[in-house]
Specification:
single chain, mainly beta, Leucine-rich repeat, LRR (right-handed beta-alpha superhelix), six-stranded mixed sheet, Leu-rich_rpt, Leu-rich_rpt_typical-subtyp, transmembrane helix
Length: 431
């Protein structure tokens, strides 16, 4: 019986090889009947029965279709075909793979429906099928796989809604459904996933409110809701997610004020609030987030002066407040952001002079100040910015001579367009 089972495993692997049309690294070159299949590249066998328990052919640039006979590997626990070029339908009868624990098929070209028979893999812990061409709905039966710790089905063509049954997966750490065409609302039972560390629903068609019970996911480190149609205000309970590192809420229809409770999120590293309909004004509490490294508030309706409290964001290296209605002078205090590399304040109504102290932020490599009402001369202190690659001062009211030292020698006329009182080197096309 063991011999027959071994023959079955060998036959199954050879059938897989026969459907591989491209093997640029000759990974399957030792898949020959005169060599024990347990010694073949990518194959792992159990010690006793010599049955295939793992098949790892990831990142081998293999092309072809996947043999349906792979269902005969009845002892299989791990199947890893990620980052290859397999295509066609996933014609695997998962009923015959009851021991499967980890399925990695991301970054291929598989298409069709996600097989319902996956629900028979009762011990499945990882389902990684992102970046393929699967379509149809997310199978409700996935909610019965109580051992699941990670689901990644991002970057497919999935539609329908999020099954409430997924709220039963109480061991789940990661749920990534991003970059699909999923609609509907976030089902309330999803908040039962109290072990979840990362929830990524970005770039779908999900609408409605952010669930009021989202604060129950109190282990969340990352929440991605960008690029959907969420509306209403940010749920109060979201501000209870004190372990949050990355919060992506941009490109929705969220409204209302940003609560002062945002200062509870003291671990935040990345905050994207841009392209929403929030009430004007940056709450001072936001400037208390001293661990922020990326802050994106562009394409917004912010108005008034840029608060001097931004100096408290001492860890920030990317800051984008562009396409708003800010006015007044640029605060000198911004020069205290010594880690800052990227600064975009373009398309506002800032006036007054460019602070000389801006040249003290020595890490800056990108500055966008275009389309404002800035006046006066360009500070020579900007010549000290040795890492600067982009300096866009176009369409302001600047005057005087364009500095010639430092990295200014590498800049082009586009950096200074629309400032009719500037003068300088001929290459800048100014008087």
């Amino acid at each position: 019986l063991i011999f027959l089972s071994n023959v079955t495993d060998q036959f199954t692997l050879l059938s897989l090889k026969s459907l591989v049309t491209r093997d640029p690294y000759n990974v399957l070159s030792n898949w020959k009947s005169n060599i024990s299949f347990c010694d073949w590249n990518g194959v792992s066998c159990s010690r006793g029965s010599q049955r295939v328990v793992a098949l790892n052919l990831s990142e081998k640039a293999l092309e072809g279709t996947l043999s349906p006979y792979i269902s005969n590997l009845s002892f299989l626990q791990i199947l890893d075909l990620s980052s290859d070029s397999f295509h066609g339908y996933l014609l695997v009868d998962f009923i015959c793979l009851p021991l499967l624990e980890k399925l990695y098929i991301r970054k291929n070209n598989f298409e069709g429906l996600i097989p319902q028979t996956l629900s028979h893999c009762r011990g499945l812990q990882i389902l990684s099928a992102g970046d393929n061409k699967f379509y149809g709905s997310i199978p409700q039966l996935l909610g019965s796989l109580s051992e699941l710790k990670g689901i990644n089905i991002r970057g497919n063509r999935l539609s329908g809604t999020i099954p409430p049954e997924l709220g039963s997966l109480t061991h789940l750490w990661i749920l990534d459904l991003s970059s699909n065409m999923i609609g509907g609302t976030i089902p309330l039972p999803l908040a039962n996933l109290t072990k979840l560390i990362s929830l990524d629903l970005r770039f779908n068609k999900i609408n409605g409110l952010i669930p009021p019970n989202i604060g129950s996911m109190n282990k969340l480190h990352e929440l991605g809701l960008s690029g959907n149609a969420f509306e209403g205000s940010i749920a109060d309970s979201l501000y209870q997610l004190v372990r949050m590192y990355n919060l992506y809420l941009e490109m929705n229809a969220l409204s209302g004020p940003i609560s002062t409770s945002i200062n509870n999120l003291t671990n935040l590293r990345k905050l994207y609030l841009n392209s929403n309909n929030f009430s004007p004004g940056i709450p001072p509490a936001l400037c208390e987030l001293k661990n922020l490294i990326w802050l994106y508030l562009h394409d917004y309706v912010f108005s008034g002066e840029l608060p001097s409290d931004v100096e408290n964001l001492v860890a920030v290296d990317k800051m984008d407040f562009s396409v708003n209605q800010f006015s007044g002078e640029l605060p000198v205090s911004i020069s205290r952001l010594q880690i800052l590399e990227y600064l975009n304040l373009s398309k506002n109504s800032f006036d007054g002079n460019i602070p000389e102290q801006l040249g003290h932020i020595l890490n800056l490599d990108t500055i966008y100040l275009s389309h404002n009402k800035l006046s006066g001369e360009i500070p020579k202190s900007l010549e000290k910015l040795q890492h600067i690659q982009v300096l866009d001062l176009s369409f302001n009211l600047l005057k005087g001579e364009i500095p010639s030292g430092g990295k200014f020698a590498n800049l082009s006329a586009e950096s200074f367009l629309g400032n009719y009182a500037l003068c300088g080197a001929p290459k800048f096309h100014v008087p």
